[in-house]
Amino acid sequence: MKTYITTPIYYVNDKAHIGHAYTTIIADTYARFKRLQNDEVFFLTGTDEHGQKIQESAKKNNTSPKEYADKISNEFKQLWKNLEISNDYFIRTTDEKHKECVKKIFLKMYEKGDIYKSEYEGHYCVSCESFYTKTQLLENNKCPDCKKDTRILKEESYFFRLSKYEKDLLNWYKQNPNSIFPTSKKNEVIAFVEQGLKDLSISRTSFDWGIKVPLNDDKEHVIYVWLDALSNYLSALGYLENEEKMPFWQNAIHFIGKDILKFHAIYWPAFLMSLDLPLPKCVAAHGWWLINGEKMSKSIGNVINPLDIVNEFSNDALRYYLLSYMPFGNDGDYSKHLMVEKINSELVNEFGNLVSRTISMAKKYFNLKLSFKDKIYEEEKEAKEFFNLSIKAIEELKFNDYLSNIFKALKIANSMISKYEPWALIKTNQNEVESLLISILNIIKNACILLSPVLINSTNKLAKALNIEIKYDLLNTFIKEFSLNECEHLFSRVELKEEKMLEEKTQKQEEKAQNDHITIDDFAKIKMQIAQVISCENVEGSEKLLKFELDLGNEKRQVLSGIAKNYNPKDLVGKQIVLLSNLKARTIFKHLSEGMILSAKNQDESLVLLSPLTPCDNGSIIG
Question: What is its biological role (predicted)?
Fold first, then answer.
């Protein structure tokens, strides 16, 4: 089976950080796993090098856009080499083959009638390469996504008929349950599209660093960065040229960060529909790595270089931590302290020590050569069930469950040593000890194979010690004879400097104390009341906000609340809710909001309104 796996092509306006590494390691792990299953894989990554942002960054660095792009692109290439990423191809949007493909794509859409010329006027965010209407902006005309200032642009532009594909997109989402993963992100996209799509500006004239529109009378237009960038997934396969690798497109999986979900889950499939091409099998959007709750940013100064982590710990440790720490799609805080704990408790103790103890006993009792003596242990079958669950999990892109199930199997192997005490049993029943070690070695063998897409170096060492090849077919084979080799420690225990660990621990305790405790005087400042919903409606220009008119008994209030993705406004009329009523009023999307409606957040980030169990008088005080 052919499988096409892609990362986004990374924008060359700055250096790579741990967030870029996370996306690429996810894709690399999945590519390695599919190769392990004997799929024919084409794994693509690369760099996005056109656009106004690059032109301005180059100017600040006193160099040409191409020279600037060359430098940053090479840094990405070198980083993936250092992180042992197994991509089959690295594409650049400045590649001539890519540029020619984009021109052909533009012409094909144009000739179909899906591209037309008009004029655009609106607010433009250079950082996000996106246009916004006035109602979509935050206060002071700031971008709703990156919070940076927008610019008012008025210029002639070519437009793509995105609105034409609104119904087709909604049908695709509904008919293909796995089209967007996780489900919470898919629901966000559907809600956005259901609000109505406007045609998309796909060319610019205010800068010239990009691919020229391939029409003789419009050479001043350059193709908008997202049509240019997204087309890399086709140009890398030779689309509209030799098309040698186009069969891979039938099974395409895009791994992306959640901040570019709209472009990949709305614009991209619409472009493909215009080209009469199959749509991706899945667009998988992961969450962000945060530092103390904040997204990594050069301006804040909290960017983490993945090579610093590799140099301090190891590449295998970095890969394991990133993939095992949080469910795919969730955000997570990077913590060096937690990483050290996971390395020591899971990689060193649960996995590495199991291998060392088992091979040491095999050497001491059987000179590294073992043969099965007919005793079958039920624990080995139980471990096999966890291995099957791990395979199911990674096929569903649940990478943390994939790893946790493998380590549940390893825990069973460790418990077998504690339960049967081979050091004591050897005195009375040598054959049973030999069978016991064979069963444990088979669990280790299966773990070695399934962990090989993540722990790429340590599993190679382990395979040499077990004297096996890392082959998927071996998972279903119970090996009855082992001729082992001695094995160096797979992982070494790591420690942070004591002062640093104490500092982090103290800081966490202080933060917890600050967050967990308030005084009765603090609580007395809060005024919460029961209010009844008189009317409720969506806020134009916002996919999250609902506007409420509330009855508090002796007064009425207007309040905005970001729960539109979780509730139909019509269903809320007449219900009683809890209002933080002495919160300072503020203006949101040009609407006055006089208080805060209280809700609880589930693990899947959905919101649930708080309301009284039994009806109360409107305006009743909570306390």
Answer: Is required not only for elongation of protein synthesis but also for the initiation of all mRNA translation through initiator tRNA(fMet) aminoacylation.
